[in-house]
Predict the 3D structure of the following.
Amino acid sequence: MVINQSIPPPDKLEHNGIHLWLTDFNQSSDHIQVLQSILSPAEQKRVNSFNLKRAQEFIIGRGVLRQILGHYLNVSPANLEFDYLKRGKPFLVNHNHLGLQFNLTHSHDKLIYAIARERAIGVDVEKVRVIPNINQLATRFFSEPETEFLQSFPIHEQTIIFLIYWTCKEAFVKACGEGLAFPIRDVEVTMDGGTVQFMKIRDKISTAQQWALRALGCTSNWLTFLPSLQNKRNLSSLHFTHIGALVTEGQDYQLSQFSVADLFTKTCPPF
């Protein structure tokens, strides 16, 4: 889908809106210091327990999240407080008059944040790369129909199909807050007819129908919807650096995307 160039960064988030924010780990040392200064004491303690690379990733990931949420809630990012679900998914415990829910994902240099109001949401992204033992992984984590569909593609195209399946499943378990405790083999995705959607969740079609799924492709700067896979030749035209997926409760929503770098100054393209 073509992305228009028109909508500025939001001052608010509508009830049916879902916003995706993009950034990366390539931040200046000055910016990293600013982000670290808004972390809580508990977060600072976590930073001190990491090696340098992991510490910088955590500072950027959590610091930018605080900036984005503070932007919507009109509060200082440093004043936000988080708690964690049983499986480790963070949530806001103060100032959240909008009922914001959020999720973030990263792969190599890319970070994506998904923000919604009063609905569960999950996002996942993976860098397009060579995946060793791809068929063994598929046999372990995918259903038989998924594995058969994957293997119907030439070897050089199987990576894209594998990553579509993988990120869709991962985005779902992140949305429901179960993480690794939820067997991703129980999340069945279909690409029949060219559209990526849930088929069954724990063998229940009715459960799958409660969730909306979008497969995404990422270039160096922006996300776009994946084209129809009904014509397998479409795969040869894909030049994405990353493959991702967005999962949310309910089917009625309006999706937009923004750049963290342009949060307060420039216009950003929505879907």
Q: What stands out?
A: The radius of gyration is 19 Å. The chain has a mean pLDDT of 88. Residues 52-73 form the longest helix (22 residues). The chain has seven helices and twelve strands.
